Fold these 2 entries.
Entry 1:
Amino acid sequence: MSSTLLPCPFCDGPAQLRSFPRGADGRNDYAVGCRTCDAATRVMKEKWLVTSAWNRRTEMTPAVEAVFDLHREINRAEQEMALIVNRLGVALERFTFRINKEEAVTDE
Ligand SMILES: [Zn+2]
């Protein structure tokens, strides 16, 4: 069985096999997830189970396509929100800097 991971079905991003220590027995649990968006398989006990789950693709029906479109839309919205939050942070820093400067001037 090939362990090559197909790209993400939602965003076409690269996939990554992740392992998690299971506990005292020193063995791992596994999941496959997208490096670009938050799509991922469930955590499972066997590598081959998560890779085959990730690589299994469902037939594209209109309902499935609608779910994929929604997922892409949510990703886009999350990226836009991250940009806005970043810009707000920069604006807040500038504002704080100006306030501090004005306070320093009025203290003199
Ligand atoms: Zn993805």
Entry 2:
Amino acid sequence: MSQTEISRMKPSLVPLATLLGRELRGEKDEKPFVKYGQAALAKKGEDYFLIKPDCQRIPGNPLTSFSVFAIFDGHNGISAAIFAKENLLDNILSAIPQGASREEWLQALPRALVAGFVKTDIEFQQKGETSGTTVTFVVIDGWTVTVASVGDSRCILDTQGGVVSLLTVDHRLEENVEERERVTASGGEVGRLNVFGGNEVGPLRCWPGGLCLSRSIGDTDVGEYIVPIPHVKQVKLSDAGGRLIIASDGIWDALSSDIAAKSCRGLPAELAAKLVVKEALRSRGLKDDTTCLVVDIIPSDQPILPPTPRKKQNVLSSFIFGKKSQNPVNKAKLSAVGVVEELFEEGSAMLAERLGKDISLDANSGIFRCAVCQVDQPPADGLSVNSGPFFSPASKPWEGPFLCTTCRKKKDAMEGKGRRPTVIS
Ligand SMILES: [Zn+2]
């Protein structure tokens, strides 16, 4: 097992139950205010966003409220971005068991995000349309922030003390060597565009298709190795709160995380979002769709995040979170600087590692529920643990939960199974 795999499988630093227990004991009983602003400039008109500050875990019960913020940066058309905006939230929520307590709900969320992203991708592909989209999807429940992302629309967190951290991973082939290896192993080719007698230009892309991203929703025509399985990170803010800046690459190609955070500190969210977009425009001009959401999670007795950066932490954070880092997965712990407690982080593209091993079986009926799309299916029609006959002797048996026929096919396709074997010389 490689070092990377070990780090992926690391347990949560602080068990969620412990944190929620502390909360129940009144150490952090106030729900924070969530204030937000949005700004955008369109070049191609392919950026979409979602703001839902009033969701409820239990419909009709305002005590169970949570907020959702998301950005969808479409490419090769807009239909995937629109489809994801309209369907992703429902697909995620349907993967969380009914009747879950708040603690169970938050613990189920990372897995439900994976299921929801994959389900949305399958549904979009079934429409037979082209186009694809990045997704950066943020769920805020109390002080707990959960971010799922495919593509390169970043979400950064700016906390009191001036610590800026990245909650997403850039799924760009140019900058992500792990993803390059995964795409190649699953049957894609990675290289630059060839023009004029073999000169290579532009960023690394995968072929066929020519996409610069390694993960997205949609992109039916590109290849299944461009997977919709999101990187997921769940953190708990201190009761000093924090600011999220969620933006498409129109911002991040112009501004570093640090500069974006610094450019708007101390300003209300609405104004902050406008200022970040303005700063990006000033630095680079309008080269791409540029969309920015700013979300402040603040103590209810404090109207605005105070602008009090501490210099020594700025040095640390810019060292850790520099954009040009060759290593896409952040090994540094936010909790190391005492600002944020890291609850969960997982970025593997393998469904078996993301969905867990338990099986959803209705014992009374003998019906299995697909862990991705939540469709009920008799087990004989789908895939369950130790289902050896579905595989050639060379492939490892599936060690994940039950998948329906459709989702099993999707899983195999994403892992490059079913294509002609490559001769390794
Ligand atoms: Zn399914």
